[in-house]
Specification:
4 copies of one chain form a homotetramer. Chain A is an alpha/beta fold and about 350 residues long. Chain A has 12 helices and 13 strands. Chain A has helices at about 15-25, 45-50, 65-70, 85-90, 110-115, 125-130, 135-140, 150-165, 195-200, 215-220, 255-270, 315-330; strands spanning about 5-10, 30-35, 75, 95-100, 130, 145-150, 175-180, 205, 230-235, 245-250, 275, 295-300, 305-315. In chain A, helix 4 links the parallel strand 3 (about 75) and strand 4 (about 95-100). Chains in contact: A-B, A-C, A-D, B-C, B-D, C-D.
């Protein structure tokens, strides 16, 4: 048996950070050895997150590269634009990196700069970075030094569209992704819009004119289809966790519902974290809460020409920390499901 | 000044019933004189709904036609299939009727029977009944004896699509309505799926294969466009009130965002209960909570060929009781906004 | 009929401010003429609070005394410590002032300074300021120039304990107030603890060692009883509005449940905003949501020596803006219920 | 190593049932082999609870004793009054029984009959049944054939009061337990009061006149103190899981805060599932959600004579299924923490 993997987490004060620690606390072959936070150095982690009392006695340290270089893998759970400042040094030190932020998700540095409002600090690494969607890039992830962990919306949307696009069944020029997210997608930042009194008992769309996940989703879909045209509308729904993507595509040829069901089942047979529901199913966000599962159903209402895919994940797990652990498992040649076998807490 | 209108409410134990009473309690020219409930006859209304203490001292009575015939108008806030049993007798007695259920919404008795699972009891009245969407049928409502109050989803969806279809700007064959509703849309029935522990902290689509509001929406849209093809996916969102309809249509010709904005503003100028937000707006369900307002925004993301309309209502007000009061105001030649001038309680 | 009262609101960007505007928008004898906000001067109010679209077209101005001096009454909906800087000048200008913050609630300047962490700017006004609990100080309020609007917890707790203490039925030395508040009590500040993801699906006590409302409650109770000993534990409950105070007191003499019920009914007979429920009742926060009502029930479980009072208000209405309007009505000799006759929106 | 324990669950369609299955799915030395439900026999368990897909492929069977007799232990997650009909036969068959309902919690059959509204079916077993609160009865549980799993409120309240009463520090005659529960405490029954639209955005007390957990709590406290007088007020809080008990007791002698803290830490040192927070702490229900932990803090506000204990559990885990697994571990001489080492999912 291999030695336990030493993991560092940069920016462990947010929701993806504490979720990583929760998952790794139950991982039999990995151990978190360093957690950093510039603002909270010296403070115990479990003073900030009491759910970790008795499970983790780490103390936040400053995010210095020397300390992180002693890890086998470093996860960045930082705001966009932070990881790219330290990643080159860590890679040089032989550390593998999984970035849960957006720094290495887009292949084109110019597009990245437009959407994230700053120049990219190490554009040369964009080509090397592997987009960590195991269902699409599993083999590349195994050998990667640097994994760009996908965004939450892009994970749910891509997993729902992939079977249809790979099979060439739908018109790629008119894809619609109507996505709904719990509020934890906005992170643990003190912002008025995320207050319980603002986001509770309320439903709204946001950033209809353009959301940073739009170019990311397009980039992924364009890898399996030509000339993707995507309308992406994100919404905020009054709950903590969960993404529900409702996807619409126009069938190019007459395809029966049965074939669509078989298409999805075949595509994801053997995938440990994609669960295609029986025909007629309606996945619920709560059924995957706290787990790394993507739950999918495919419908063709009224036997008409529009296919509807329902794709559900926990934005903090399959949409962030869980997928990161899945990627770590692949990178270190562990069983892909290690540390990710939780049953969703229901209700 | 005209005498105060005497209103009866059949089935005042549900959410649309108590909402009607709340609205009429503040109406200067109407008074609720009869509330009926087969199961609660003899009980005070405010014992069931303590928010009405001090505002209404009525006692539930049996729903007999004689008593209701003394009213000027009777609202049915009953399950589908109930109103049609009593409406002919009430009309014969000279009473005006507003049905908040679905009994008179569809013009075709056969279609109605298919979707509602029973034969229609008075199909001859279907032609006479006026579909009570004032923004489309205001003049017909003024003269109506019998108004079919629109469903909640159909109200939000129709108001969002009407300007585009009337102007012939979009392809009617590929309309998509992705609609999200609060749980009160399911009524005050004791059902497992509506429990806080089932519907709370959860998001899901339901009835993707076919929802009863689909033929109702199509019927309305077909009145202003030919060969409407509609994909309608309703979702349950973990809050009490509110519907958010996100509508997608493919532009037939190149229309700038500016023109779309003007189209909506022109269409609804003068409408007391449709509020077109400034360009780039994102309506919130809470901003219309408890009010009869429909709040709308129109977008054309990335200047591409798909127009996105966001249409928001309170399902129990503009989607039910408020629209019913608006219809009553029209039927009795009152100011259309009487009793409907509330400011939404926020937060 | 008197001329319409011109009201100014300082700090109208928080929840008590927007609630004041909602209530005054429906008030037949008052009009908001000035809203100030240092940070948002020049911005339309309804751009920040879309629920006010069509109801209020005011623009925020700087909070300068000259402009406010043109008002008949000025409401301060500001953080603690702000009003006391401007109140003397406004009073000198002949303007009546209602402070919704805590600046004038405590009679003792030294105690105020200890609890609020700063010296009081105008301690000489503390004696003149009238504590605006109409059920206790109605006559004094009528003649007041300066009203200190009570805190939310103190309102709910005082109204529950007053009948027992005034009648001398309970031991004042061992009073317990276990109070639960919705999150809006924390205001519209961007703080991590008020995020939906922190305060949602969670329940906790806070400030058990000492909350600023403790001395305020004691001051009020000491006006009707000697040597009050009070244990006050506030809790945060995952909802937007509402306070539920559960009060415990030890009966000094054997008093039957029936007498307790009569005691409360007698004490509050004629009070327009205190509703004593029938025996055995359990008031709900939602039944008073958006209204100025305090709903109360009194119990004596197992006929033992402890009396339990359940006292419920909407913290933003009877606990803030509604009580302020009630005080304004008294100060200007209007009907006490003007603008405060809403029926709670339920569900 | 011992063979895996075969567990049966009677009534696995409710929230405590599915929670038991979730916990046992991760238990290395137990396996659920039978799940019964009279109404759902033949149906797959994971069709009702999709979170179990891939984790449990059991099918509901009829609850016949023969099948259950093949188990080592049978859990009853049934309504009150059901278990007592089958327990004698199962015990005769050599099966150990853990009843999560109330059938065997009270020692006095007459008291049981009064509170549960039916005669007890096997009163002779009441003396043998061990009340399964490991922190009080660990040794007795080890040898038990029949364990009465404590109620949710009684667990939170007893763990909070025990140290004070055992040490004789407080007056047992005037104990107050103000307890707040999430809605899942009401079970998965279709009842109007548990609907999201009734229980959401609302807070209320209920059953102040008398709740069935009152005699259960008294019985436990009377085992460690004389003449217990208890006022118990349960409340419904708008969230799914969690109980927060706020406990008040009058100190008999002058005891400093420091000593109280030490008292609690000493009492629970070594207890795997009771976590005494550092001085000044405020436990949150979310920090124990999905876990078997009871989180406790003790306060003495204003150094006065009343001690305040805050005791928090997940009602479905330490208050039901988790405590049942803890009891099973003790009965079968396993490590007490097996299957119960989850980290709470936060947020």
């Amino acid at each position: 048996m291999s030695a336990v993997i030493k993991a560092g987490i940069v920016g462990a004060t947010g929701y993806t950070g504490v979720e990583l620690i929760r998952l790794l606390a139950g991982h039999p072959e990995a151990e978190v050895t360093v957690v950093t936070s510039r603002g909270n150095a010296g403070q115990r982690l479990d003073a900030m997150f009491p759910n970790l009392r008795g499970h983790c006695d780490l103390v936040f340290t400053e995010p210095d590269v020397e300390r992180l270089a002693a890890c086998d893998v470093v996860f960045f759970a930082t705001p966009n634009g932070t990881a790219m400042g330290s990643v080159p040094a860590l890679l040089d030190a032989g550390v593998r990196v999984i970035d849960l932020a957006a720094d290495f998700r887009l292949k084109d540095a110019q597009t990245w700069a437009e959407w994230y409002g700053m120049p990219h600090a190490c554009p040369d690494l964009l080509a090397e970075a592997v987009y960590g969607l195991p269902e699409l890039h599993r083999e590349a992830i195994r050998g990667a030094r640097l994994v760009a962990n996908p965004g939450c919306y892009p994970t749910a949307v891509a997993l729902g569209f992939l079977p249809l696009l790979e099979a060439g069944l739908v018109d790629p020029a008119h894809l619609i992704a109507d996505a709904k997210s719990g509020v934890s997608g906005a992170g643990r930042k003190a912002e008025v819009g995320s207050l319980l009194c603002e986001a509770g008992e309320n439903f709204k769309a946001y950033k209809v004119a353009g959301h940073r996940h739009w170019p990311e989703i397009r980039q992924t879909l364009n890898q399996v289809a030509d000339a993707v045209g995507l309308t992406f509308v994100p919404h905020l729904t009054p709950m903590i966790r969960g993404i529900h993507a409702t996807l619409y595509a126009v069938l190019k040829v007459s395809e029966g519902t049965h074939n669509l069901q078989a298409l999805f089942e075949d595509r994801y047979r053997g995938e440990p974290f994609v669960d295609v529901l029986p025909p007629g199913g309606h996945p619920e966000t709560r059924s995957v809460r706290g787990t790394n599962r993507c739950s999918i159903a495919v419908h063709r209402p009224h036997d008409a020409g529009t296919v509807v895919v329902l794709s559900v994940i926990d934005n903090l797990v399959k949409g962030a920390a869980g997928q990161a652990v899945q990627n770590m498992n692949l990178m270190f040649d562990l069983s892909e499901i290690q540390g990710l076998e939780q049953v969703a807490v229901l209700p």
